[in-house]
Task: structure prediction
Amino acid sequence: MPNPILPGYYADPDIAYFNGKFYLYPTTDGTNWSPTSFHAFSSTDLVNWKDEGVILDFADIPWTEGKNAWAPSVGEKNGKYYLYYTANTEYIGVAVGDSPVGPFVDIGKPLLTYKQYGGRSIDPYFFRDDDGQAYLYWGNKRMHAVKLADDMITFDGEVVDITPPWYNEATCVFKRKGIYYFTWSVNDARSPDYQVRWAKSDGPMSPPRGDHLLLSKDTAADSRIKATGHHAVINVPGTDDWYIFYHRFCAARFGNVNGPCTEAGMHREVCIDKLCFDEDGNLLRVIPTMEGVSL
Result:
């Protein structure tokens, strides 16, 4: 059973492709939502993953108060790498490094502060369009979007609110064949019904049009698979192969009152499954599996 793809408890995966390798950036889980550092994992095949070690430690960042290292997302420009992340439950920071695995150095202050634009400032997501323009998304209850300036730290223009129906958190944006896709999580991460919805959009800062189910628990297939959400999407370069990374409740031991997986939403696993489209470019529902993908 390739799923989960990482040993141990991890959540909120971000996935990127740099210099011939895939890089996975998750939240460390199993700590009552109180991790204090980020790890990166690398792979050439999306199946076998190498732990690259700690890439950012909150002990080195006083303003975080050493609390709640959540939901990283990494982008690149001109050979520099930018790690956007949640800290102290309500703030978003950014750190800069010379490689996809850092070490990353924080800029010394929050990028976004407590409820700065309405809704909590959590779950940043980086997206680069075909023309090279970079965007940042974030939010809880409200979905915010902004164009990033050339320094990848300051904002180029106004922050816009593009909240879709039932939005809770964990925005993910990607583009295929000229179509922009917005995906997001609904419900609470501690609920078995945590799930992913999707819609198309006219542009990277345009509101999503519609609301469709993409990924949710599927107890008919396997009653151990619950709370499938907070995801990221990757296209294998040079192909039309797409994959979705997401977390779920710890499945192997869920429901065992003597095991560590009983605290729902705080002992999660990172998984991968195939992402498919129909002839009209609509996303097909993803059925979460224990098998994941194979070489």
